[in-house]
Amino acid sequence: MSDTKSIKFAYFFALTGGLFGLHHFYLGRTQHALLWLTTFGGFGIGIFYELLFKLKQYVREINNDNLIINQYEKKIRELKSPAFEIQRFFGQYIISVFYGFITYYAFPDTWLEKNSSSLFIAFCTAFAIAIGTQLAGTIGPRQCSFIWPLLGAIFGIPFLIVNRDTSPSFNIVAFLSSWIFEWKIEWNSEYFSKKSEKKKKIRFMKRCLIYGCGAIIFGIILTSAIYQNLQVDIHGNGERVKVKDILTDFFESQEFQRIYYQLSNVGRQLYGFYLRQGFKGIWNEIWKALNKERDKQAYEVKEKKSFDIQYLNYLGFESYT
């Protein structure tokens, strides 16, 4: 069975799900797919650039095109390590800043008041920045131990520990992480190695797991960042209130407590009925209720029709039936 990837399918997935990296997942570029998923297609610019200039090359690369392989082999022979690319460096810098930003603001702002929790937030932010650097920097036949971008980000932790009057410097930490990464970057000689059919199946399941777990983790962090910081003007007077404060007040209100008590009571009754009668008993009760409702509606229609006939007869329309 041929495993050759189609350029038509690649463009189809790029046009329909490019913002989520579906075309990269189809081409076996799981790392690139995860990167696009978490940056919404490279902030919209990356997917547009790929559609115009890069997608055909990616397809030829996954299909082990001899011309592409020869070009990479020539670079590996001529250069001891990958050359510095300003475009890639800028991309991994922006992505690492974004990862650090959403991670830092995903935590409650009250945690910044304590030294221990503030240090924990700073380390998590540095770790996220290092991940952004690693993901963006090792696309293609390039490799680097994760310890180096992480070490660069850790050097920048003092710029992330701030007080209420200052803001963290994500850009400095991202620059340090990206700079040390570029210093230690190497060629990945196994990038074009072929896999057996059994390994390909295992690799596909592993790719799905990585992509799915990455999506879940990113979704949790992004949702938390929005929840912790989103503000709305509910009165229209320019005074903005955090959404989390509104939700907290709602869940602590007596009205919510009353609704919660009623729903809990209904849930307990349904569960008790389920234990006694089972799912079949619940379905029978639902069916009886539906039949009663239909009978009620039919009776109301019949009564209305009878009233209309009597009224028309009263007006002299005896022939009405």
Brief synopsis:
The protein has helices at 7-17, 22-26, 30-43, 45-62, 66-78, 86-104, 115-137, 147-155, 170-184, 197-229, 243-251, 254-314; strands at residues 142-143, 186-187, 231-232, 241-242.
> Average pLDDT across residues?
85
The side-by-side strand order for the widest beta sheet comes to 1-2
Helix content: over 70%
Q: Per DSSP, what share of the residues sits in E-state strands of 2 or more residues? A: under 5%
Largest sheet at a glance?
2 strands, antiparallel
| Silhouette | extended
Ranges where pLDDT stays below 50 over 5 or more residues in a row are none
Compute the CA-based radius of gyration: 31 Å
**What is the total number of structural domains?**
2
State the order of secondary-structure elements, H for helix, E for strand: HHHHHHHEHHEHEEHH
Kindly report the oligomeric state of this protein. Answer: single chain
- The secondary structure category is mainly alpha
Give the helix tally: 12
Total DSSP E strands: 4
Distance N to C terminus:
73 Å
3D structure, described in words:
This protein has two domains: 226 residues, no CATH class; 62 residues, no CATH class. With 321 residues, the chain is mainly α. The protein contains twelve helices and four strands, in the order H-H-H-H-H-H-H-E-H-H-E-H-E-E-H-H.
List its traits.
321 residues, mainly alpha, 2 domains, two-stranded antiparallel sheet, 12 helices, 72% helix, 2% strand, extended
Topology:
Elements: H1 7-17, H2 22-26, H3 30-43, H4 45-62, H5 66-78, H6 86-104, H7 115-137, E1 142-143, H8 147-155, H9 170-184, E2 186-187, H10 197-229, E3 231-232, E4 241-242, H11 243-251, H12 254-314
Antiparallel strand pairs: 1-2, 3-4
